[in-house]
């Protein structure tokens, strides 16, 4: 794994040189621009994830059979009081998609990243949304989209249809460059960042990070224009991956540099005198 | 009476402006000009009106930056130019497709070799085969496995943390 990572940076330059001499139009780009994270995924991460997740078909069949018997036993050995036949059934959750067989071509990858700013100050003064929109544009390089509320909330004087938030959806190279900036520049500069928990994830390949207003000023582009913003807000980053379960999503994101740590109980709970 | 005086004043100022040099005119404009909304804002502020009219002046510059310029127009191409453009795009797409196919082939070969290795191990030693099939619950890449860069920092790891 470590060896693969080191080798990739050396082979890249020599491969480009070899193909350049063979091509007819030597002036044309041989490799073209590829983001750092994209290159790393293609050269190293993708194969590593495939190897780490592969299970031989015989063993996989055994595991699935064991899982089925466990579920069957759980369904049959019901505990607690029997359900009331007169009461209506609760909404049944949609069953999660089955984990597909690991092949050479279906390693998980990041699908899209959404940066979202909820601006409650926009309820009093609509202009504050401009701060959010401009901040999103400065950070991501993409023009943001204003989000209007879908529901009423009288406690916060919110009516349906009021503009309340702004978001940007990133895909492709821009998404990888934003992730790169986040992991290499912003997260290390944060005062107290301990990483994502090992329990992170929404169960179907989505991960969310939330940040305080102090963090938005740590982006290199924001440092220059920080004073031009009347309102500095926090933001959420939602990372959507093609992973089907949390562990494979965590494996992918850890490869890109996001730190995952086991949640620790606070000292007061672990040791009682 | 007051109104007439104001109007006379205004005419006088306009005449004076025409006599001044352009540099002085510009300086005078910079010193005295107000944005269109300023008068409205002053009025609203004095009356205690809605706060969106008395907002930060920086929002004016943000609005200018974000909404002032017309979006860029695509260049108008002749039919030959369009053909050249589409040929170039198609050629680049073909290059990318070939790279993808090559990478896909490499992945297939590696994967099949791994499958054959597992099968060989199963034939040789069952215990080792079972050990190889064990998967940790929450496996993640170690933090030391950094994304490679051509310009690494002098101090890569802060061991005090």
Largest sheet of chain A: 5 strands, antiparallel
In the CATH classification, which architecture of one domain in chain A applies?
Answer: 2-Layer Sandwich
- Quick one: how many beta strands of chain B? 0
| Rg over CA atoms of chain B | 36 Å
- Strands of the largest sheet of chain A, in order across it? 2-3-1-6-5
Structural class of chain A: alpha+beta
Total count of strands of chain A: 7
The secondary-structure element order of chain A is HHHEHEEHEEHHEHEH
Greatest interface (CB-CB under 8 A), with counts per chain: A-B, 53 and 42 residues
Helix content of chain A: 40-55%
Say which CATH homologous superfamily of one domain in chain A is assigned: Ribosomal protein L5
What composes the largest sheet of chain B? none
Envelope shape of chain B? elongated
Number of helices of chain B: 6
* Rg of chain A computed from alpha carbons, rounded to a whole number of angstroms: 24 Å
Quaternary structure state of the chains depicted: heterodimer
* Structural category of chain B: mainly alpha
Number of helices of chain A: 9
Could you give the distance between the termini of chain A?
45 Å
Which percent band covers the strand fraction of chain A? Answer: 5-15%
Could you give the distance between the termini of chain B? 78 Å
Description:
The complex is a heterodimer of chains A (273) and B (161). Among the domains of chain A are: 1-28; 110-261, Ribosomal protein L5 (50s Ribosomal Protein L5, Chain: A, 2-Layer Sandwich), CATH 3.30.1440.10. Helix content of chain A is 42%, strand content 14%. Chain A is built from nine helices and seven strands. In chain A, the strands form two sheets. A five-stranded antiparallel β-sheet of chain A has the order 2-3-1-6-5. In chain A, strands 4-7 form a two-stranded parallel ribbon. Chain B has two domains: 2-67, no CATH class; 79-144. Chain B has helices at 2-19, 22-32, 36-47, 58-67, 79-124, 126-133. The radius of gyration of chain B is 36 Å and the shape is elongated. Chain B starts with a helix and ends in a 28-residue tail after the last helix. The interface between A and B is large, with 53 and 42 residues.
């Amino acid at each position: 794994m470590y060896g693969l990572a080191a080798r990739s940076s050396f082979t890249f330059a020599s491969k480009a040189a070899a193909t350049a001499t063979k091509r007819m139009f030597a002036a044309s780009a041989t490799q073209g621009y590829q983001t750092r994270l994209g290159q790393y995924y293609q050269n190293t991460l993708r194969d590593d994830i495939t190897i780490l997740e592969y299970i031989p078909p015989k063993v996989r069949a055994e595991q699935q059979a064991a899982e089925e018997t466990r579920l069957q036993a759980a369904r049959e050995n019901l505990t607690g009081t029997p359900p009331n036949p007169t009461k209506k059934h609760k909404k049944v959750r949609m069953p999660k998609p089955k984990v597909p067989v690991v092949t050479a071509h279906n390693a998980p990858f990041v699908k899209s990243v959404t940066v979202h700013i909820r601006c409650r100050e926009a309820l009093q003064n609509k202009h504050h949304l401009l701060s959010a929109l401009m901040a999103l544009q400065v950070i991501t390089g993409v023009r943001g989209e204003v989000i209007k509320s879908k529901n009423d909330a009288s406690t916060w004087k919110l009516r349906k249809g009021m503009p309340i938030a702004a978001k940007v959806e990133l895909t492709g190279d821009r998404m990888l460059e934003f992730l790169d900036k986040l992991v290499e520049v912003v997260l290390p500069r944060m005062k107290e960042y301990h990483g994502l928990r090992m329990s992170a994830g929404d169960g179907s390949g989505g991960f969310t990070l939330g940040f305080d207003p102090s963090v938005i000023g740590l982006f290199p582009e924001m440092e220059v224009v920080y004073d031009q913003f009347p309102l500095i807000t926090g933001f959420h980053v939602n990372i959507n991956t093609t992973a089907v379960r949390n562990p494979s999503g965590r494996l992918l994101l850890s490869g890109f540099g996001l730190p995952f740590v086991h949640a620790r109980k606070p000292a007061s709970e672990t040791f009682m005198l | 009476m007051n109104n007439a005086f104001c109007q006379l004043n205004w005419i006088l100022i306009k005449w004076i402006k025409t006599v001044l040099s352009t540099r002085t005119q510009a300086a005078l404009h910079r010193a005295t000009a107000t944005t269109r909304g300023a008068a409205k804002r002053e009025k609203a502020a004095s009356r205690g009106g809605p706060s969106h009219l008395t907002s930060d002046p920086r929002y004016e510059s943000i609005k200018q930056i974000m909404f002032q310029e017309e979006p860029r127009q695509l260049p108008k191409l002749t039919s030959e130019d369009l053909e050249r453009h589409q040929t170039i795009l198609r050629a680049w797409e073909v290059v990318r497709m070939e790279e993808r196919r090559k990478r896909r082939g490499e992945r297939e070969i590696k994967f099949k070799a791994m499958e054959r290795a597992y099968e060989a191990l199963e034939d040789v030693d069952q215990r080792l085969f079972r050990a190889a099939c064990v998967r940790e619950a929450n496996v993640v890449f170690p933090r030391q496995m950094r994304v490679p860069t051509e310009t690494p920092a002098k101090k890569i790891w802060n061991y005090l943390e």
